[in-house]
Design brief:
Helix content: 40-55%
Number of strands: 2
Largest sheet: 2 strands, antiparallel
Radius of gyration: 21 Å
Shape: elongated
Structural class: mainly alpha
Number of helices: 5
Number of domains: 1
Strand content: 5-15%
Order of helices and strands: HHHHEEH
């Protein structure tokens, strides 16, 4: 009886730790890329394999832009990092194509 109770407590603690860890990672995923990158740089790879990373990522980064909507304004460094490019300043001047994806 004592062993069953001890196992139950251990399982409960592990489940609670897993939920808390997943909530912390989900919160980090909702932060700007620089903050998320700093968090992930410190996270050991085996921990990433222990929870549903892809599902959390898909939900955290879902966004609300629909096909046909104007893209939200943003600013990014140029390729040579000498200047910044702001999307809002390009509107009406020439067509702009935005390609989102990962090329790693």
């Amino acid at each position: 009886m004592r062993a069953v109770r001890a196992v139950g407590i251990v399982v409960l603690v592990l489940v609670a730790a897993g939920v808390a860890f997943s909530a912390r990672v989900y919160h980090a995923m909702r932060q700007p890329p620089d903050e998320f990158g700093r968090f992930m740089a410190k996270l050991p790879m085996p921990l990433m394999m222990a929870f549903p990373f892809e599902t959390l990522w898909t939900r955290a980064r879902a966004g609300t832009v629909q096909v046909g909507d104007l893209a939200p304004d943003f600013r990014l460094p140029s390729v040579d990092r000498q200047t910044n490019v702001q999307l809002g300043l390009l509107r009406g001047l020439r067509p702009v194509v935005l390609v989102f994806g990962s090329y790693t």
